[in-house]
């Protein structure tokens, strides 16, 4: 494999090693993939004005997120179906996050359940939630995350329907038959049927609640005492509504450019959201982060931390 010197180099290796359908699922964006490219390019247009002759002999990168002390302002974003990439999948991610002293966010659509991830040992973990049409399923899932020791809910709000991911349509993407969505295994919702489209798009159309609105943030607060992060905010208007709804924090996210194409890069939307939040709740960012310099740019523009993802393009 040779020496890997930066995160971007993993993408070429993944393309070599993974089956095309799986690589394309991880690597592609919606439609023209303009936002996918822009998530990266926007970072490259931000330049530093470095100051000199400052004592930097003692550096402390630790920070606090929702009251939890972590080693650095870099956390793990939710990535679905990680066992498609490696048999250890979410187990390995959970162990790595714990060893690094940071937070892992587990996807609703993980190939390991909340209980299985909790069994890997201690660690601070958040749970990413999609709201299903059947609210009993949602309640059950939230209760299980609570019992498994998860510390917060990251509510994804930008997916009333799945973005048009053309690579997945061409590949007729479906979860490999030896895997399932483990959090839904006992509910007969763990399998994805083959379709003439993307199997995931058909699954989302059948299961995810398109009526989701701000009142549902209140509903979620009524069924759990866990803090709720609203994931998928890219405008000042929605940032103010998130504050008003009682969210514990905002994640500026465009779903790794996999939902609506031609929205701004998250780093371009960050300042607007931070200004609107006005220090009332913390603002985090995901999307396009590949280097320490990207993390620094996000922090300099007001983010309280970033989420990075094992999906090659998600963060």
TrEMBL record:
<keyword id="KW-0576">Peroxisome</keyword>
<feature type="active site" description="Proton acceptor">
    <location>
        <position position="255"/>
    </location>
</feature>
<keyword id="KW-0560">Oxidoreductase</keyword>
<feature type="binding site">
    <location>
        <position position="253"/>
    </location>
    <ligand>
        <name>FMN</name>
    </ligand>
</feature>
<dbReference type="InterPro" id="IPR013785">
    <property type="entry name" value="Aldolase_TIM"/>
</dbReference>
<feature type="binding site">
    <location>
        <position position="130"/>
    </location>
    <ligand>
        <name>FMN</name>
    </ligand>
</feature>
<keyword id="KW-0601">Photorespiration</keyword>
<protein>
    <recommendedName>
        <fullName>(S)-2-hydroxy-acid oxidase</fullName>
        <ecNumber>1.1.3.15</ecNumber>
    </recommendedName>
</protein>
<dbReference type="GO" id="GO:0009854">
    <property type="term" value="P:oxidative photosynthetic carbon pathway"/>
</dbReference>
<dbReference type="InterPro" id="IPR000262">
    <property type="entry name" value="FMN-dep_DH"/>
</dbReference>
<dbReference type="InterPro" id="IPR037396">
    <property type="entry name" value="FMN_HAD"/>
</dbReference>
<feature type="binding site">
    <location>
        <begin position="286"/>
        <end position="290"/>
    </location>
    <ligand>
        <name>FMN</name>
    </ligand>
</feature>
<feature type="binding site">
    <location>
        <begin position="78"/>
        <end position="80"/>
    </location>
    <ligand>
        <name>FMN</name>
    </ligand>
</feature>
<feature type="binding site">
    <location>
        <position position="128"/>
    </location>
    <ligand>
        <name>FMN</name>
    </ligand>
</feature>
<dbReference type="GO" id="GO:0010109">
    <property type="term" value="P:regulation of photosynthesis"/>
</dbReference>
<dbReference type="GO" id="GO:0003973">
    <property type="term" value="F:(S)-2-hydroxy-acid oxidase activity"/>
</dbReference>
<feature type="binding site">
    <location>
        <position position="156"/>
    </location>
    <ligand>
        <name>FMN</name>
    </ligand>
</feature>
<feature type="binding site">
    <location>
        <position position="258"/>
    </location>
    <ligand>
        <name>FMN</name>
    </ligand>
</feature>
<feature type="domain" description="FMN hydroxy acid dehydrogenase">
    <location>
        <begin position="1"/>
        <end position="315"/>
    </location>
</feature>
<feature type="binding site">
    <location>
        <position position="255"/>
    </location>
    <ligand>
        <name>glyoxylate</name>
    </ligand>
</feature>
<dbReference type="InterPro" id="IPR008259">
    <property type="entry name" value="FMN_hydac_DH_AS"/>
</dbReference>
<keyword id="KW-0323">Glycolate pathway</keyword>
<keyword id="KW-0285">Flavoprotein</keyword>
<comment type="pathway">
    <text>Photosynthesis; photorespiration; glycine from 2-phosphoglycolate: step 2/3.</text>
</comment>
<dbReference type="GO" id="GO:0046718">
    <property type="term" value="P:symbiont entry into host cell"/>
</dbReference>
<dbReference type="Pfam" id="PF01070">
    <property type="entry name" value="FMN_dh"/>
</dbReference>
<dbReference type="InterPro" id="IPR012133">
    <property type="entry name" value="Alpha-hydoxy_acid_DH_FMN"/>
</dbReference>
<dbReference type="GO" id="GO:0005777">
    <property type="term" value="C:peroxisome"/>
</dbReference>
<comment type="similarity">
    <text>Belongs to the FMN-dependent alpha-hydroxy acid dehydrogenase family.</text>
</comment>
<feature type="binding site">
    <location>
        <position position="231"/>
    </location>
    <ligand>
        <name>FMN</name>
    </ligand>
</feature>
<keyword id="KW-0288">FMN</keyword>
<feature type="binding site">
    <location>
        <position position="107"/>
    </location>
    <ligand>
        <name>FMN</name>
    </ligand>
</feature>
<feature type="binding site">
    <location>
        <position position="165"/>
    </location>
    <ligand>
        <name>glyoxylate</name>
    </ligand>
</feature>
<feature type="binding site">
    <location>
        <position position="25"/>
    </location>
    <ligand>
        <name>glyoxylate</name>
    </ligand>
</feature>
<dbReference type="GO" id="GO:0010181">
    <property type="term" value="F:FMN binding"/>
</dbReference>
């Amino acid at each position: 494999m040779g020496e890997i010197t930066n995160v971007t180099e993993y993408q070429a290796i993944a393309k070599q090693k993974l089956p095309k359908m799986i690589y394309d699922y991880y690597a592609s964006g919606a439609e023209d993939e303009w936002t996918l490219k822009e998530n990266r390019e926007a970072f490259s247009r931000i330049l530093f004005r470095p100051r000199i002759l400052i004592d930097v002999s003692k550096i402390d990168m630790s920070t606090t997120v929702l009251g939890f002390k972590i080693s650095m302002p870099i956390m793990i974003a939710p990535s679905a179906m990680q066992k498609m990439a490696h048999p250890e999948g979410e187990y390995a991610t959970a162990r790595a996050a714990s060893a690094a002293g940071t937070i892992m966010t587990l996807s609703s659509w993980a190939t390991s359940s909340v209980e299985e991830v909790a069994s890997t040992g201690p660690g601070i973990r958040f749970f990413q939630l999609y709201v299903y049409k059947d609210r009993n399923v949602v309640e059950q899932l939230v209760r299980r995350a609570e019992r498994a020791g998860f510390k917060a809910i990251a509510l994804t709000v930008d997916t009333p329907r799945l973005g048009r991911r053309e690579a997945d349509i061409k590949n007729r993407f479906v979860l490999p038959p030896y895997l399932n969505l483990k959090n839904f295994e006992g509910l007969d919702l763990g399998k994805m049927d083959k379709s003439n489209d993307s199997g995931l798009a058909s699954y989302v159309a059948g299961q995810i609640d398109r009526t989701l609105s701000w009142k549902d943030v209140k509903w979620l607060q009524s069924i759990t005492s866990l803090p709720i992060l609203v994931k998928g905010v890219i405008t000042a208007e929605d940032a103010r509504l998130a504050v008003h709804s009682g969210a514990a924090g905002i994640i500026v996210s465009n779903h790794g450019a996999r939902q609506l194409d031609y929205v701004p890069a998250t780093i371009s939307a960050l300042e607007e959201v931070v200004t609107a939040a006005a220090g009332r709740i913390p603002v985090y960012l995901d999307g396009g982060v590949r280097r320490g310099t990207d993390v620094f740019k996000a922090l300099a523009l007001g983010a309280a931390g970033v989420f990075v993802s094992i999906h090659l393009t998600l963060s």
